[in-house]
Automatic annotation (TrEMBL):
SUPFAM superfamilies linked: Homeodomain-like, Tetracyclin repressor-like, C-terminal domain
Classification via PANTHER family: HTH-TYPE TRANSCRIPTIONAL REGULATOR RUTR, TETR-FAMILY TRANSCRIPTIONAL REGULATOR
Domain (HTH tetR-type) ranges: 22-82
Protein name: TetR-like C-terminal domain-containing protein
DNA-binding region: 45-64
Keywords: DNA-binding, Transcription, Transcription regulation
């Protein structure tokens, strides 16, 4: 019998455990949010999520041992990309960029349906509350760096009430778009940015 060459062995496709494909993982997250927006968290079906993503239910369980862990990772991944915390040269410009990116996220039809349900679910599901608290801490850390830049530019006093300042960054836009379900034009974003900057400087 002819012995197989080393090159043939190297070309052999891997067997055993299925390879985790990033594009399918992304499709599963998207399908989860679509299902969540349509049904609410309590009625989310992993079978339907998998079908939406063009996969079998096993594709979910290869990645996450439970629906809860699937949901928590999805929230964590998406939540950190909803706002712009980059340096735009001034506190006012930083706030304006932050609001514009957040506005775009809040305008997404899935986000507008899911975010209120996530907030409600945190009261019922401790694991989701832990995930949201971790996400909030990470986002506030990014926001705190924005404040540090403003302090370094001497736009803010070092002794400002940092927690209040961080609350002010998001509260007006969240109330307008999520709580009251109102559209927010760019002119309104500009007005909010001016008002928030003034309020933070008074903290």
């Amino acid at each position: 019998m002819e012995r197989k060459s080393i090159d043939q062995i190297k070309r052999r496709k891997p067997s055993g455990a299925a390879v985790i494909r990033p594009e399918l993982t992304k499709a599963l997250f998207r399908a989860l949010f679509e299902e969540w927006a349509q049904c609410g968290y309590g009625a989310v079906s992993l079978e339907r999520v998998a079908a939406r993503a063009g996969a079998g239910k096993a594709a979910i369980y290869r990645r996450w041992p439970s629906k809860l862990e699937f949901v928590c990772e999805a929230i964590q991944r998406v939540g950190l990309t909803l706002s712009d915390f980059d340096d735009h040269g001034s506190l006012g410009a930083d706030i304006n960029a932050y609001l514009r990116t957040t506005r775009a996220a809040f305008r997404h039809p899935l986000a507008r349906k899911i975010i209120p349900d996530v907030v409600a679910e945190r009261m019922r599901t401790p694991e989701i509350a832990v995930t949201l608290n971790s996400l909030a801490a990470a986002r506030r850390a990014f926001g705190s760096r924005m404040l540090d830049r403003a302090i370094a530019r001497k736009e803010l006093q070092p002794a400002l009430d940092r927690e209040l300042a961080l609350d002010l960054l998001i509260s007006p836009l969240y109330m307008r778009m999520i709580v009251h379900s109102k559209n927010t034009a760019m002119a309104e974003i500009d007005r909010q940015a001016i008002a928030i900057e003034a309020a933070i400087k008074a903290c």
